[in-house]
Write a structure and sequence with these properties.
The chain has 175 residues and is mainly alpha-helical. It has helices at residues 2-26, 32-43, 45-57, 64-92, 97-111, 116-133, 136-162, 171-174. Helix 1 (2-26) packs parallel to helix 4 (64-92), helix 2 (32-43) packs across helix 7 (136-162) and helix 4 (64-92) runs antiparallel to helix 7 (136-162). It is elongated.
């Protein structure tokens, strides 16, 4: 089980890393939807990993609990890789992400025509967020929390689907 979790977790982590890198190199505004699309593509390795474990290791039959455990293991590995890549990105960009993020958020507030009091309140909240985000003990769990819930959802769906040995049957069993 550990081998499957490691292999597919690293595959998922590599896809996330390539996706983050590609978006960062291309530049422009980072779309929330694009980020989650990259996560979904990367975390599709959960379904593939659980299926491979079911077919190759367990002979085509897996229970919901074990399938969920394998899926969650892959999600954890992907989350760790996601955090590591994000930390490297932050270091390479001299931790300027939050400066750019805050500038974009405040520019959007200004463009929306909020009152001076609302703008000052938003600026104060953003400054508090900058201080919190500078602490890796805050930043890393927050980063992990971006991807892990998506992985949990995919692990639950994969476990529910793959516990049925007729769903995507093994080629050896289908013949």
């Amino acid at each position: 089980m550990f081998r499957t979790i490691t292999i597919y977790g690293l595959i998922s982590g590599a896809v996330v890393a390539l996706g983050i890198t590609a978006v960062s190199v291309v530049g422009g505004k980072h779309s929330l939807w694009l980020g989650y699309l990259i996560m979904l593509v990367a975390l599709s390795s959960i379904l593939v990993g659980v299926k491979q474990y079911r077919d190759d290791v367990l002979g085509g039959v897996i229970g919901f609990g074990r399938a969920l455990l394998v899926g969650l293991g892959i999600a954890v590995m992907a989350g760790i890789a996601y955090c590591a890549v994000w930390e490297v990105y932050l270091a390479l960009t001299h931790y300027t992400f939050m400066d750019h993020y805050i500038a974009e958020m405040l520019a959007a507030k200004r463009a929306a025509g909020v009152s001076a009091a609302e703008y000052q309140k938003a600026a104060a909240q953003m400054e508090a967020m900058r201080i919190e985000y500078a602490n890796p003990l805050y930043r890393v769990p927050m980063t992990f929390a971006e991807i892990f819930p998506v992985g949990v959802l995919i692990a639950l769906v994969s476990a529910a689907l793959l516990r049925n040995s007729k769903f995507l049957p093994s080629r050896a069993r289908a013949a």
